[in-house]
Amino acid sequence: TGAITIDPGYKNSGSCKSEITFLDGEEGILRYRGYAIEELADKADFLEVSYLIIFGELPTKQQLEQFENDIRKYTLVNEEMKNIIDGFPKTAHPMGVLSSLTSALTAFNPKVVNVENEKEMYEAICKTMGKFLVIATWTYRKMMGYPLNYYDNTKGYVENFMRLMFELPTGPYATNKTVINALDKLFILHADHEQNCSTSTVRIVGSSHAGLFASISAGVSALWGPLHGGANQAVLEMLEQIQKDGGDAQKALARAKDKDDPFRLMGFGHRVYKNFDPRAKIIKKAADEVLAELGVNDPILNIAKQLEEAALVDPYFVDRKLYPNVDFYSGIIYRALGIPTDMFTVLFAIGRLPGWIAQWKEMRVNKEPIGRPRQVYTGYPLRSFVEMDKR
Ligand code: CMC
């Protein structure tokens, strides 16, 4: 088999060829299907970008309407799913619940398990886009003890997200354009990021020909970790802690630099971006705008800015090319929109869904082989069995 090279964390190994997302870490460039992220965040909406990422081209007006209609057809979630949600304690983390519910969907949608032709592929995609949004918001309703809500076919996808989350039987939920636009932009900025940890997970699980829901459920679990999507929750908890401790950014920096202290500056650093994260740039600006438009004065934003300013001139961070990433400012916007901290990573998952779907589809269409890395064995050579009474 020849010599095996090991590359922990796959820092220098490519796992596939892909036409979906272009990322240049040195230059801070991110493009979906050739379109700059800055332009998409400014001019397109989330479903339009989802279509682009999944199918390869920007949709015509008619294609987009069709896509939205087809997603709507599948926004009802099987009633028995409610029994599964009932079984979770209210204190369960929404990401754990989301991963389980996504996996449970396979039981009710066998066709999504075995996609055999283009038509079934399209249905699986629309089903996933429809049902995942609804169950993602159900994790919040569960946490709050609220009755579960249903998709409103007269409203758009992102608007439905806010309704599904916040509308109560006691009265309709009023939202405004600023909130919907901000969420649209955030979802777009999260929509794909080539072979990151959760996407690689989706591809490797799917490479055994496991179905779309099963693969995405695994992706949700991978995203949950604080070094990946879970960082957005961790950033806000870190900022709150700094605020509680008197708001001293320098003290937090000192801890992050101390190699004996496991504390890391959450929302800083990236495996690929070594200059800046283009998503963070857009989100920082959006955070300023959204807070101003909503009239929110959040002292946490000032702490984040101080921390960023101090880190950007600190030799530790400069030498290691550590810059704010996508998770550094997103939580501040989510907080201003009234979304609880425990739900932040669920929002990341909703945004990343089209990317996971597109990568899974590409992997299946290209008939990629099963993912099966090798290893270099470092354990014992052959040993003789030791009887129980001699151990
Ligand atoms: N705070 C303090 N030191 C850091 C940080 C940080 N946030 N990030 C990296 N370093 C140091 C690290 O200790 C190492 O130092 P040394 O060379 O002295 O040993 C050096 O920088 C290189 O770091 P690494 O861990 O080898 O880099 P990596 O590519 O394996 O990890 C990362 C990338 C994103 C996991 C890491 O930067 C990190 O843990 N950041 C904090 C968590 C975070 O914000 N994650 C979100 C990433 S972006 C969105 C997403 O993927 O969801």
Would you kindly provide a written description of the structure presented here, covering whatever features stand out?
This protein folds into two domains: 19-225 and 341-365, Citrate Synthase, domain 1 (Orthogonal Bundle), CATH 1.10.580.10; 231-336, Cytochrome P450-Terp, domain 2 (Cytochrome p450-Terp, domain 2, Orthogonal Bundle), CATH 1.10.230.10. The longest helix is centred in the middle third of the chain and has 27 residues, at 118-144. Helix 11 (212-224) crosses helix 18. Helix content is 56%, strand content 3%. It has a three-stranded antiparallel β-sheet. It has 391 residues and is mainly alpha-helical. Carboxymethyl coenzyme *A is lined by residues 9, 196, 227-229, 231, 256, 264-271, 320, 322, 325-327.
What can be said about the biggest beta sheet? Answer: 3 strands, antiparallel
Counted up, domains total 2
Structural class: mainly alpha
Spans where pLDDT lies below 50 across 5 or more residues: none
The number of E-state strands comes to: 3
What's the architecture of the largest domain, going by CATH? Orthogonal Bundle
Order of H and E elements? EEEHHHHHHHHHHHHHHHHHH
User: What hetero molecules are bound to the protein chains?
Assistant: carboxymethyl coenzyme *A
Shape: globular
Q: What is the beta-strand fraction?
A: under 5%
What's the rounded overall pLDDT mean? Answer: 94
- Arrangement of strands in the largest sheet: 1-2-3
Catalytic activity: oxaloacetate + acetyl-CoA + H2O = citrate + CoA + H(+)
Active site: 270, 327
Keywords: Acyltransferase, Transferase, Tricarboxylic acid cycle
GO cellular component, one term: cytoplasm
